[in-house]
Amino acid sequence: MKRNLLFILTSLSFLITSCGVGPAEETADEFHKKLDAGEYDYIVENLIDEEIMNETGAEVWYTMFDQIEALWGKAKERKQDFGFKSNMNNGVTTVQLDYVVEFEGYTVYERIFLVDRGKGSKISGVFMNESKATLESQAGSLK
Hints:
Layout: H1 21-37, H2 40-46, H3 50-56, H4 58-72, E1 75-89, E2 92-103, E3 106-116, E4 121-129, H5 132-139
Antiparallel strand pairs: 1-2, 2-3, 3-4
């Protein structure tokens, strides 16, 4: 049975969003390391954008982590897929990074949105799906 998982944890990132991709990539790398290590508290407390956390609550993120592990297990390999997109609006930078993640028996496509409101890059949304087309249609993209 095909398993799909989509997390819509971004709302502001489409409205507020050119440069500074390096810090976003560093935050995404840190997110992946902590995710692989099961350090979910660290992610929730340090890597998620405060405005998004206020909207979603921590429980949504913990549920996402549990579902990732339940559906696919631990990631074996992760590669960035086709570069990035970024936008800047009113001094706020938003970056989209795409990855291909290999799990045991599964290939999953991941899209991470990051935002920098002047305090460093933070995660504003994570989308994952086994279908790249579904990810594209449901996760959207920075314009």
